[in-house]
Each structure stands twice: as structure tokens, then as C-alpha cells.
């Protein structure tokens, strides 16, 4: 099964990092967040990726060219014509299509442009800036159980601020940044059928707008409710939070470490 990843946005809310590289290449623990996302899928045996490029897409191409050719130990004859010999390469068994989808194309348009590379069957899709400890096998089983065209992973992210409840003016409870009690949001990690492309008219379509709204209207959009860890790297603060988790050893999305 193919996995599409949207990695072409400009990441303007993370301008401190994205002025020099695309957001999916911003590093957590010395690895691009794109690598973390792909590793989540790979830990469940999904290793066939189609990545939609846009803003600074050459940066991502160069990363994978170097990743393939420079991983592991090398033997070379300096000044000679002998081929470079690779030893014990330490990289995942990924097949990666890197597809130019335009600098200004919106999310729906990028998905539409990936269509020739996503195969004729069910495919997975996510954004290039979010991680989770999601059970992808359970997500896929849920999608297959309902028979609709689209499944979106619904998440309840932690609140940004502490939450208080009152008895008059007396504080009766205080929670530091609890998980939001209400308001499920789009956490990406979609499972989609090819017919979803028919809901996307062209490049200037946000997938989160008309396509998902119309899928919902037609009764073709189902939600997989994920109660566990989820985080999107939208701002420098988000990046620092993920980096802190990684450095502390508390890495809930790093399911490949337990595999």
C-alpha cells in the first residue's frame, strides 16, 4: 500500500527554520521530522512512499540522494576509478517517489498530482509535519470495516494553557495543559480510496475545505478517534517541545524503537 506525504508547504509559522529548508526537513533528534513520519509507517511494514514536493523541494531530493548513497560505512579508492563499496548500510527499506507538485499548489492539488503514483487501490496519506503513536493496523482495519471512501484520524491535542474549574471564585481544580476535553480536530493520518480524487477539482483546492466537506455531506467520511499521543510541528515552540521529548527519552511516536 502506498503512503502519500504532503511536504510542499512553506511553513511560514516556523520561519526561523523554514527560511533555509522546507518544514519536513526541520530536525528532531538530529533527523528530519519527515524521517520520523516515514519511520512510523515503516514500523508497520508500509515502505512505499510518494512525497509531494513544493517549497525548497530540492532540499528533500538532496537529503534522500545522500541518505541512499552515504548511509553506513564506505570503501573508496581516492584518485582511482574503482567503484565505491558500501558496507552495512543503516537505512530503512524505503521506495520513495519524490514528485514536484508546484510551489503554490494547495493541499488538495498536491494530492491530485500524486494520483499517478498512489496506485489503483486504497492508500494512506498524511501531512509532513505531524507525529503520533497511532496504531496504523487498527486504523486500516477501521477503514476497511466501514466501506466508505475516506477515514480521517481525529485527535484531541493538549491545551496550550492550564485549565481551571471554579466554585464561585474558589479554584476547585487546576490542570496544567490537559488534553482538550472537547473539539476533535483533523490529525491527518488518512486512509483513502482512489475515488477521493474525484472530489478535488484542481491545484487551488484545500483538501481540508471543499473535498472533506463534500465527502462528509455525501456520508463518505469517517473518523478514527485516536486518544493517544499526537503533535504537529507548526511553530518553533512545537519544535522545541518535540525536541525536549526526544532528548528526555520519552518518544511516544518512535514506535520503531520498540519493534
From TrEMBL:
<protein>
    <submittedName>
        <fullName>Glucose-1-phosphate cytidylyltransferase</fullName>
    </submittedName>
</protein>
<dbReference type="GO" id="GO:0047343">
    <property type="term" value="F:glucose-1-phosphate cytidylyltransferase activity"/>
</dbReference>
<keyword id="KW-0548">Nucleotidyltransferase</keyword>
<feature type="domain" description="Nucleotidyl transferase">
    <location>
        <begin position="5"/>
        <end position="201"/>
    </location>
</feature>
<dbReference type="InterPro" id="IPR005835">
    <property type="entry name" value="NTP_transferase_dom"/>
</dbReference>
<dbReference type="InterPro" id="IPR013446">
    <property type="entry name" value="G1P_cyt_trans-like"/>
</dbReference>
<dbReference type="InterPro" id="IPR046981">
    <property type="entry name" value="G1P_cyt_trans"/>
</dbReference>
<keyword id="KW-0808">Transferase</keyword>
<dbReference type="GO" id="GO:0009243">
    <property type="term" value="P:O antigen biosynthetic process"/>
</dbReference>
<dbReference type="Pfam" id="PF00483">
    <property type="entry name" value="NTP_transferase"/>
</dbReference>
<dbReference type="InterPro" id="IPR029044">
    <property type="entry name" value="Nucleotide-diphossugar_trans"/>
</dbReference>
Amino acid at each position: 500500500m502506498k503512503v502519500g506525504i504532503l511536504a510542499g508547504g512553506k511553513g511560514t509559522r516556523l520561519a526561523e527554520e523554514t527560511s533555509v529548508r522546507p518544514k519536513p526537513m526541520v530536525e528532531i533528534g538530529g533527523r528530519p521530522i519527515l524521517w520520523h513520519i516515514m519511520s512510523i509507517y515503516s514500523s508497520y511494514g508500509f515502505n512505499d512512499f510518494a512525497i509531494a514536493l513544493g517549497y525548497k523541494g530540492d532540499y528533500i531530493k538532496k537529503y534522500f540522494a545522500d541518505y541512499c548513497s552515504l548511509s553506513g560505512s564506505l570503501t573508496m579508492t581516492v584518485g582511482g576509478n574503482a567503484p565505491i563499496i558500501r558496507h552495512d548500510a543503516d537505512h530503512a527499506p524505503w521506495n520513495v517517489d519524490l514528485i514536484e507538485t508546484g510551489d503554490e499548489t494547495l493541499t488538495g492539488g498536491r494530492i491530485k498530482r500524486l494520483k499517478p503514483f498512489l496506485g489503483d487501490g486504497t492508500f494512506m496519506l498524511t501531512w509532513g509535519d505531524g507525529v503520533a503513536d497511532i496504531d496504523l493496523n487498527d486504523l486500516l482495519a477501521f477503514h476497511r470495516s466501514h466501506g466508505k471512501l475516506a477515514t480521517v484520524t481525529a485527535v484531541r491535542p493538549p491545551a496550550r494553557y492550564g485549565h481551571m474549574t471554579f466554585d464561585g471564585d474558589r479554584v476547585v481544580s487546576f490542570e496544567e495543559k490537559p488534553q482538550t476535553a472537547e473539539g476533535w480536530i483533523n490529525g491527518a493520518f488518512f486512509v483513502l480510496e482512489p475515488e477521493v480524487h474525484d472530489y478535488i477539482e484542481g491545484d487551488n483546492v484545500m483538501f481540508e475545505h471543499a473535498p472533506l466537506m463534500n465527502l462528509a455531506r455525501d456520508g463518505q467520511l469517517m473518523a478514527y478517534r485516536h486518544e493517544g499521543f499526537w503533535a504537529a510541528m507548526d511553530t518553533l515552540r512545537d519544535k522545541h517541545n518535540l525536541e525536549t521529548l526526544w532528548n528526555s527519552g520519552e518518544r511516544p511516536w518512535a514506535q520503531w524503537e520498540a519493534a
